Amino acid sequence: MKIGIISDIHSNYYALKTVIAFLEGQHIDVLICAGDFVGYGPQPKECVNFFLYYPISHYFCLGNHDIGVRFRYSDYYHQEPIKQDHKILKTFNFRESAAEMLDRNAQDIQEDHFQFLFNLPFKQIFQLDHKKFYLTHGTPSLRRRENVGKYLLPPPLQDPRVTIDRLKNDKKAVSADIIIIGHTHRRFLIARDNFYSWSLIEDILDKKPTKFPLKFPFNKNRIILNPGSIGQPRDGTGNASFVVIDLDDEILEFCDLEYQMKNFYRLAKEKCAPGLQDSSFWANKFGYFSKE
Ligand SMILES: [Fe+2]
Fold first, then answer.
1. Domain carrying residue 250
2. Is residue 117 part of a domain?
3. Which of 82, 182, 190, 248 has CA atoms 20 to 30 A from the CA of 107?
4. From ligand 1's centre to the CA of 9, what distance in Å?
């Protein structure tokens, strides 16, 4: 079984369609997306449309920007803001330009796009070919829904003890073979022999230029995986980053694809809020984590 793993599309349909064409060429059986379908970018409708009608087996979850857009939509059009979103949004710290794009995306989408965002779960736990998967956007948690906006970073950016503390309140995360998260827009792979023993297999930021695809066998270990971002990568050239897992061969591949960046940057310049119009935002090379 082949699985395509993507995250953080951020209303960048140019990048999404390039990656999906590649994944279809790989004949994936399942698509997994770790959230942030919308926000930041100028193409929320095109992106959600694609996922609304996606024909093959898939598992999706909710990102913090998805909460921001659906909350604003419900506020504008239904006149009854989603109460739980309101509470969670208070714990996030969107910078001004990002908040502006949440507004614009909310005004751009239609009811069926809102329903797609409304129905996204905070996390998904499922099994594929005897492997237990745990999917969430930010940091796994049993009940703390605001963790959807909490970064889980690889060591040395975050002390592994902090990571363990954050994971261990959810037993389903502890027992999962493959934990998939997004949110940082920066790809990494952590292997764990058991819950308290960790080793960082790959954090790609410090290794540029890196040749893709990068392959890793994962048969012996449980793993925590971040596939990076499709729409606004923060760890390299600006190429869309994602992962393909082959469960039969137990091989994981970090992939990296160029897309029609010039066309997208032109659109971003025209339609994004000030601060998000420059190509350097969309091809952030410096691991930007200070604000969402
Ligand atoms: Fe994101």
1. 2-282
2. yes
3. 182
4. 8
Helix axis angle, 96-108 relative to 44-52, nearest 10°? 60
- What separation in Å is there between the alpha carbon of 8 and the centre of ligand 1? 5
Distance 148 CA to ligand 1 centre (A): 10
Q: How far away, in angstroms, is 112 Cα from ligand 1 center?
A: 22
* 161 falls within a domain: yes
For residue 20, the SS3 value is helix
Closest CA to 149 of 241, 59, 62: 62
Cβ-based neighbours of 117, under 8 Å, separated by 6 or more: 37, 38, 48, 62, 66, 69, 70, 73, 109
Domain assignment present for residue 288? The answer is no
248 CA → ligand 1 middle, Å: 30
Cα 228 to averaged position of ligand 1 atoms, centre (Å): 9
Within 10 A of 165 (CB to CB), how many other CB atoms are there?
10
- Ligand 1 centroid to Cα of residue 68, in Å, is 11
pLDDT at position 288: 45
What is the domain count for the chain? 1
Tokens linked to 143: 């009940």
For 45-100, the pLDDT digits (tens) are 999 999 999 999 999 999 999 999 999 999 999 878 788 899 999 989 899 999 99
- Cβ within 8 Å of residue 208, ≥6 positions away: 236, 237, 285
Ligand 1 centroid to residue 284 C-alpha, Å: 13
Q: Once rounded to an integer, what is the mean pLDDT over residues 34-38?
A: 98
User: What six digits make up the tokens of 243?
Assistant: 């992962």
Ligand 1 centre distance from Cα of residue 6 (Å): 11
Among 118, 115, 59, 63, CA closest to 94 = 63
Residue 190 falls in which region: left (phi positive, over 0), alpha (psi -120 to 50) or beta: beta
Rounded-to-integer distance, Cα 230 and Cα 103, Å: 21
